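Problem 12. The chain below contains 329 residues. Write out its predicted structure in token notation.
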Amino acid sequence: MHAFGITRYQQPLTRIEVPEPTVGPDDVLVDVEAAGLNHLDEKMRAGEFKALLPATMPLVLGYDVAGTVLRVGARVREFAPGDRVYARVGAGRTFAERVAVPQDELAPAPRTLSTAQAAGLPLVALTAWQALVERGHLQAGQKVLVQAGAGAVGSLAIQLAQHLGAHVATTASGAGLERARELGADVVVDYRSQDVEAELSGYDLVLDSLGGDTLLSSLRVLRPGGRAIGIAGPPEPAFARQAGLNPVLRLAIGALSSKVRRLARQRGVTYEFLFMHASGAQLREITALVDAGTLRPLPVETFPLDDAPAALGALAAGRVRGKAVLVRG
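Solution.
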């Protein structure tokens, strides 16, 4: 089977031949019609997560998929051949012709989206959902800051937070300012010309997708008892324990996050790192919101599957507008 992946870390993405997927009793074999590209794919290629997500080689990249069910395992009851589906696949390997997906990671694709649009949605939509709903427990009337509101995760988080009845602030610049307003943000701060900490205070929750100094600033806009959820890192000891990392890695991760955790304690707030997980049940909730018109994903820029190396390079270099998606002809 044709696929795109690597045989060692930091190697350029290349076309490789791999065995057909093994379909277990709880798996669904999906014909990959479109596969979303994410910055996670570039980080995996570069080996940035090899300590957290060790992989065997050759490694087929890709985590998002949309396509048609070809075959189902013996215990699968909710899907049948011919169904149009999408998923964030926990084990990845979606830059290929076919992929086996555990049934609990799969959901019917939104009826109102094209296959390419559906393929660009799972990872970023699940990230927004898990930050605001699963972890953040965001309630109506609360105040949330979504950093980088014009991005793929941020744009969905703004809409989801509005749907939940929260007061939403966000940061953006340039054309992203108007985009954030169109998405429904109550307050839009131009981070290039305005001081975020001077403009915002007393927030219950922050979704931070940038890390570094932006994360530290995020902590300062929270009310006492507020929470910052970061998706760019650094990971913290609770994540390391949950991930079952060895003691050496746990110590290293503790050191990496010590500055942000110290500032959080000083201000009486909390910080936690989110590494999103696959969930078909949450995708079903997201599908309903998309089909109801509540969530509108970013436009997609499509590339043929055979152009996967160039597409990943364009994404890493910031040359993609919207979501990058590979499509098979």
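Discussion. The mean pLDDT is 95. Students who got a different answer should revisit the alignment rule from Section 12.3.
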